[in-house]
């Protein structure tokens, strides 16, 4: 029998369904982490394609191919940023079976939907991160004979990654919360589990209070960990430049101490 007090009912639900809540939270984290990771890979690919430079001296074939690729990538970004993830999940999971006779598993559909949705947002983030790097970096790389691919891999992307790291973390936090829409295709994540527990005893307020606290714990812990990662990527405040030029000081930049004032 359910206790009469609010906290008593919460304690009762945790005792009876604590394992179910934890299992649902675990599924939520798996989908969010995998979806964010794959979405970042998609976003980097799309973002790089969108920033391919086209010069007037390039051949007509290259201009045409790059133009077509950029148009396709722009359509992808606008479509998946302009439609809700819930609608995308319904369309992909049920539409693929109806139109193309492709029977996806629920888990594959969940990873696929979160990945392509995150990829659309990350594509614009990556594009902005690449454009935020000073043009002098690209010109210097070309001056020493680097190709566009070498410049992107060795010079531009490492700097862009540091700039867009906060947005990657933000997308992970969003995905932790937005995985609840996947309950519409039957994924047993935290929201789906909470609905089942609430419906069993009609304790909607108590059950969703537990879910709300669990979502907050997940997002708060992830945000703190990502903040630490950002801090690590910033590097030390004071450092010496390592050089191999024998004409320069062996330790790079050197700060001479101030002379003591003569008495």
From TrEMBL:
Residue ranges annotated for the ABC transmembrane type-1 domain, each copy included: 25-226
PROSITE patterns per UniProt: ABC_TM1 (PS50928)
Protein name per its UniProtKB record: Amino acid ABC transporter permease
Record's keyword terms, sorted: Amino-acid transport, Cell membrane, Membrane, Transmembrane, Transmembrane helix, Transport
Membrane topology, as annotated: Multi-pass membrane protein
GO biological process terms on file: amino acid transport
Gene3D superfamilies on file: MetI-like
GO cellular component: ATP-binding cassette (ABC) transporter complex
Entry similarity comment: Belongs to the binding-protein-dependent transport system permease family. HisMQ subfamily.
Intracellular or extracellular location(s): Cell membrane
One Pfam family matching this protein: BPD_transp_1
